[in-house]
Amino acid sequence: MVHPPGAHAPLPALRPANPCFSSGPCAKRPGFSLDALNGALLARSHRAREPKARLAEVIARSRALLGMPADWKLGIVPASDTGALETALWSLLGPRSVDVLAFESFSQAWATDVVKQLKLPDARVLAAPYGALPDLREVDFGRDVVFAWNGTTSGVRVPDGAWIPGNREGLTICDATSAAFAMRLPWEKLDVVTWSWQKVLGGEAAHGMLALSPRAVQRLASHAPAWPMPKIFRLTKGGALIDGIFAGETINTPSMLCVEDALDGLRWAERIGGLAALVARCEANLATVAAWVARTPWVAFLAEEAATRSCTSICLKIAAPWFTALPAPAQAAAAKSLVGLLEKQGAAYDVGAYRDAPPGLRIWGGATVETADVTALLPWLDWAHGETAAAHAPARAAE
Q1: Does residue 219 sit in helix, strand or coil?
Q2: N or C terminus: which one in the chain shows less Cβ crowding within 10 Å?
């Protein structure tokens, strides 16, 4: 509803108990308090026996929770998911031609790395605008393929793994940072998977996770990159895999406080029922938003196809005529104003669209977000839209 200029709609009666809907760092798990970190091994070397065991525990619990095949390697690497994905690109690419799927900000960054930084001679970028996927039928699996499972800044995910052949020749390198623990990953279709602690389980930023299939490990053993390798990207020494990376001997100093926090998130996930429960929580959040969008004319999903709509980074566009009639700079200002109203009221923090995405909303619906909080948020979105639309009514009347 849009109310007359100068009038104000009543505030919704209920605020979300946790108004944190940021897409990273994400909401802490329900019931979290700093007491959960009391066992952190502060002021200890991460190379000492006990801290190293904690790092190895993050690896072991992550493997088990995700159902990762026993013959895969999983390690902790510096610089969050970005560091993990960059490590994979710099270490593994070169022997084959490459296809990169680019359909949002981060996947476009991977395309830039491949084309402009590594300067691979036969690289194709299969691009799509925000809200869509590239044509997956065009992907050539005789080449290495780099893609995001879920576009964190576009709210678009690949629908499943059916488009990836089991008998592919190239490697599939998957950025799964906003998909791991929220969506079921078909490990048999993937060769490299990366994610960070700060997404679906609500951990703090710092290090990333790098998972390698036997095919990826074989590539590392047989391929020496043609470019200089920064120390933090090195996975091999003397042609052999540095096994310690995958056993808790993390390169670069990790925060043991963040390690303890990551373990707390993993233990919480185990307590509530494991991966099945995590996926169900995320899908329930998406379903709640989808039901509201279906009955709300001023808003629409940015993702064009229902099967590609993310259940974690839920991206929405403002479809009201008053908004779409505005020039682009005014649209950005209006969307920012709407988001500011929500923050001022303590109803929702950090729900604006990513800076490179079309103006709109981005609501994190990962497993640490309670569906009751999503339900409580929706009337506030209607309220903030009404306030913002009313503020623009005088300008529309003057046109």
Answers
A1: helix
A2: C
Question: What end-to-end distance do the CA atoms of the chain give, in Å?
Answer: 22
**34-269 has which fold?**
Aspartate Aminotransferase; domain 2 (3.40.640)
- Burial of 118-129, coded b for 16+ CB within 10 Å and e otherwise, reads bebeebbbbebe
Question: Residue 264: is its pLDDT beyond 80?
Answer: yes
Q: Which positions ≥6 away from 135 have C-beta within 8 Å?
A: 126
Residue 231 identity: K
Between the alpha carbon of residue 353 and those of residues 152, 155, 281, the distances in Å are: 10, 10, 22
pLDDT band per the 50, 70, 90 thresholds, residue 251: confident
| CATH superfamily, region 273-398 | Aspartate Aminotransferase, domain 1 (3.90.1150.10)
Rounded-to-10 torsion of CA 45, 50, 56, 60: -150
Q: How far apart are CA 348 and CA 210, in angstroms?
A: 32
Question: Which token pair is 253?
Answer: 């100093």
Domain positions in the chain: 34-269, 273-398
Residue for token pair 């503020």: 391
Tokens coding 237: 């020494």
3-12, 161-170, 193-202, 295-304: segment of lowest average pLDDT: 3-12
Is the omega angle on the peptide bond into residue 25 within 30 degrees of 0, that is, cis?
yes
pLDDT in tens, 336-385: 999 999 999 999 999 999 999 999 999 999 999 999 999 999 999 999 99
